[in-house]
Amino acid sequence: MAGALSHIKVLDLSRVLAGPWCGQLLADLGAEVIKVERPRVGDDTRAWGPPYLKDRSGAETKESAYFLSANRGKKSLTLDISTPEGQDIVKQLAAECDIVLENYKVGALAKYGLDQASLRAINPRLIYCSITGFGQDGPDAQRAGYDFMIQGMGGLMSITGQPDEVAGGGPVKVGVAVTDVMTGMYASVAVLAALAQREVSGAGQYIDLALFDVQVAMLANQASNYLVGNVVPGRLGNAHPNIVPYQAFATADGHLILAVGNDRQFNSFCQVAGHPEWGSCERFATNAMRVRHRAELIALLEPVLQERTTREWLAQLEAVGVPCGPINTIAQVFDEPQARHRQLAVALPHALHDAVASVANPIRMSDTPVAYDRAAPLLGEHTHEILQERLHLDREQIDRLQRQGVI
């Protein structure tokens, strides 16, 4: 069955993670995504390893796991866009595409005539999405932006990690490049919204996305705590600023995440814990009071949680509807019965291997399900195919471009 976006063509000029993440999501939904890469070098993340994919014989290849994570379903076209011939090929492809994704520095593509104004003049229906560190304007527009520095500058690291006064306290980045990933998600929403608007107006539009803007938006309730309550949030480790008890606790053999979201759940927890009096205590009866008396309550809970194993707590609390869970390693995640049932690991064909493991797209659609057609491409794997089928170049023309280093 054709994907929801099987009628959409995407020209992906981006590299690393934010832009490629958007392109991969569009490919998962059925779009044809042509990834333009530098000849002989390719996307920076091709070299971000180990680990690297092993081929059918078990030998290590040059295909990094990082690159494979963000580029499945795409076609790779190697192209030197600094050459007039390369620029002409991009323009011809943009003329028949619906979306262009790029994450070059502000103004960098204008010197090649590949900026949004130039390409949208060729194709007025084109949706052109630029992803940068700080956006197209403002005092920081020319600065490069990388996920780690944006996590710090955008406030995330000020609320991630243990408080300074705790042993080992201090700012900590999130273990995944979440700003990049969320920027890719916002970019996906933006281009799909622009596609919907194009159905009404008939015209494409320009999208300006900044990692910094996305990181600030991601602060969600923490930003609202400051803007509404004038409270500057700090680091609480695994605790929650607005809900108690909502954190990780040590058990007899590991850890348990206790996520009590309302007063009923707290009373149920108290019953299981053998301390029903906590639920009726004025200091703990409501969430607002529990937040106010956080330190006192946590001091009471910690020794009790250590009396039983994680498995015992999970069974007893789940039976009465108290949200809780273990802290899994990534290996344990994919071994969870729910993960197996939902098939969160999928196998995709690759030029060097019959079944490359990949994380499933979480979107489940009844009529146009996600299709997993191919793993991330080899560098330039589809160059000849694209030039022949899309631009109708013959073998002699393609060989000449290759000799010139254009492809």
Automatic annotation (TrEMBL):
<protein>
    <submittedName>
        <fullName>CoA transferase</fullName>
    </submittedName>
</protein>
<dbReference type="InterPro" id="IPR023606">
    <property type="entry name" value="CoA-Trfase_III_dom_1_sf"/>
</dbReference>
<keyword id="KW-0808">Transferase</keyword>
<dbReference type="InterPro" id="IPR050483">
    <property type="entry name" value="CoA-transferase_III_domain"/>
</dbReference>
<dbReference type="InterPro" id="IPR003673">
    <property type="entry name" value="CoA-Trfase_fam_III"/>
</dbReference>
<dbReference type="GO" id="GO:0016740">
    <property type="term" value="F:transferase activity"/>
</dbReference>
<dbReference type="Pfam" id="PF02515">
    <property type="entry name" value="CoA_transf_3"/>
</dbReference>
<dbReference type="InterPro" id="IPR044855">
    <property type="entry name" value="CoA-Trfase_III_dom3_sf"/>
</dbReference>
